[in-house]
Amino acid sequence: MIPTVLMILTYEVKQLMGISSMNQLEEHLFRDTALLKIIGFTARQIQEGFCRRGEGKRQGPMHRDTLADFLSKFSSLWRNSQTLIFLDFFLDKFFFLYKIALMLN
Predict the structure, then answer these.
(1) Quick one: angle between helices 4-16 and 81-104, nearest 10?
(2) Is the dihedral of CA 68, 70, 72, 77 positive or negative?
(3) Cα angle vertex 101, ends 78, 66, to 5°?
(4) Confidence (pTM)
(5) Along the 105 residues of the chain, how does pLDDT read in single tens digits?
(6) How many CB atoms neighbour CB 41 within 10 A?
(7) Which residues fall within 8 angstroms of residue 28, CB to CB, at 6 or more apart?
């Protein structure tokens, strides 16, 4: 199972990069190993993925439909204030790391 924080951060990076479609994830986001490592994926997760489902067809840590399915299920959790606190904490951590990465480039 893919940790929730990685799913949320992957979606946030998708938005920051201006990727308009889930179909473009593999072409744009999942090819950038350095960015995936900043998000929090390990080298093994990036190369092998989280499961064997779609092996050979998948590029990156997960299939693009996995993120889309997660987002559709996660939308009901937005109403929960504890989830918002959790999300805020991890997004702050991500943006801090993202700013450092931009400074290093």
Answers:
(1) 60
(2) negative
(3) 40
(4) 0.67
(5) 888 888 888 988 898 888 889 889 888 899 899 999 999 999 988 888 887 666 666 678 888 888 888 888 776 655 555 566 666 677 777 777 777 667 676
(6) 24
(7) 17, 19
Distance CA 100, CA 96 (A): 6
Sign of CA dihedral 46, 48, 53, 54: positive
DSSP string, the chain: ---HHHHHHHHHHHHHTT---GGGHHHHTTT-HHHHHHHT--HHHHHH-SSSTTTTT--SSS-HHHHHHHHHHHGGGGG-HHHHHHHHHHHHHHHHHHHHHHHH-
Cβ 67 vs Cβ 25: under 8 Å: yes
Distance (Å, whole) CA 4 – CA 23: 21
